Amino acid sequence: MKQNYFIIFDTIEGAYICLNEQGDSLLTYSTERGASDAFELHYEQCHELNHTWSTSAMLHWMALKPFIVALSADLSPFEVINTLSLQAPDPKVYLLSSIAVRSIKGLKVDLSTCLQYKVSSIRLMVTDSA
Q1: How far is CA 58 from CA 1, 23, 54, 98, 126, in A?
Q2: How far is 6 from 8, CA to CA, in rounded Å?
Q3: How far apart are CA 103 and CA 100, in angstroms?
Q4: Is-contact 64 72, C-beta < 8 A?
Q5: Of 57, 91, 105, 124, whose CA is between 20 and 30 Å from 40?
């Protein structure tokens, strides 16, 4: 069965599924690795400073706790949102602004429902300066 992979942000306010920059469609990936790599690349481009990570970026990252869920590729974007929502999804577009992710648009979904589909965590890679 073919699957799509979605990055979910777990925050103190709940869980959010990522949207594209325009906020009009879900961000999907064909592989779990692709989702993780895309997120890591964006994160590193924004926050790696001379091969080190700023303390504030690491703290924000730990608070966000992003992870990846896999759902059937047969689902429409609306069905994905319904699947990850406990009840009717909140259609408002949220902007998750922090030092860690700059600006990620997302739709709020139910955290406990999302965690039932959890397949992997995205880890922060910290390197020491030379």
Answers
A1: 36, 26, 6, 11, 9
A2: 6
A3: 9
A4: no
A5: 91
Among the listed residues 117, 125, 94, the one whose alpha carbon sits nearest the alpha carbon of residue 6: 117
Report which secondary-structure segment, H or E, holds 93.
strand 93-98
- Bridge partners for 18 per DSSP: 106
Distance CA 57, CA 48 (A): 9
81: its two tokens: 């949102």
* Strand, helix or coil for residue 107: strand
Tokens of 112: 């406990």
In this structure, what token pair is assigned to residue 8? 């979910």
Helix intervals (H) in 13-90: 32-47, 55-64, 77-83
Are 64 and 11 within 8 A, CB to CB?
Answer: yes
